[in-house]
Input
Amino acid sequence: MRPLDFAQALLVIIVWGVNFAVIKVGVANMPPFLLGALRFMLAAFPAILFFRPPKVPIRLYLLYGMVVSVGQFALQFSAIHVGMPSGLASLVLQSQALFTMLFASVWLREGWSANQISGLLLASTGLAIIGGSHGASMPMAGFLLTLAAAAMWASGNIVTRVIGRYAPMNQLAFVVWASAVPLTLPLESVSHNRDHELACLG
Output
């Protein structure tokens, strides 16, 4: 491995870890859905001004945006908000690989190799051990929400595979435009809650 490749891999690991620490700080100061809305607002704008939307059916933009942008991150932020430790969240979220295998076998009719089955059993055992050791440091609600977020991430992987059947496209441009999908949902929810609180105060 070249030093540059190693440095890039290390950078990804560092960014991934710091990401969960930032989420922990963020959900301590604002509602999870609002934090998610801000995340995708920054992901979409101003980048959306510099990328043309790839020629992909609008339903795939909506589907990817709902399962990844809304589903995964809403559940992930909510899990940490209810007390899931950020370190464990980053670990449990990797169960998306297991869900991806399961979903691919059902929806894409993909078979499994012996190595994949062995990995699936080993990882499932690890998740069972983690889930069985929950306590004050890891509420079961947080663990289940993180698993649900992993399932949403895996669903997004399946959508990405379907998108790959179309002509080659700019993946970055697709993600940027798909990031615009979840913006209105969290903001409307936050706005409704704020109006309700103001009405009660009045």
